Amino acid sequence: MNIRYGRSRPPRLLSLRCGPHRLPRLLAERVLADVNSAVDRKMVKVDAAYRARTFALDLERLETLTTRCLEAVAKGSLQAGHLLLKTLERRSAMLGSDAPMRLDVTEIAGPRETSTSELRRVFEELRGKRSDEPPSLPN
To answer: What's the pTM value of the predicted model, to 2 decimals?
Structure first.
């Protein structure tokens, strides 16, 4: 049994191959590595199939909650009415039915008349002449 430590390391530190000044840091690193590996083993793999199952399950739960809320609203519960509204909002957000519709407006008509040609046409009409006749030159 080693009772005298003096300058030598305690027996437990020999297996870690470090001095007493590095021991807290080394232990923290090892504990962190152990925790990270345990978390990695327990984590759920999130892929497209998992997302689809979760989405379907959430919709099913919302439907159940909506049915129960409708029954309570029929009996006159205001709190159930508020919860019903929230479930309907959540379902429409999930399905995207509240998203604003996007409309792309395109102009089908031909080229527009410029303001100068429009003014010229109006002046000619006021003078009693047709716009397709060439303007007459003053004498």
So the answer is: 0.45
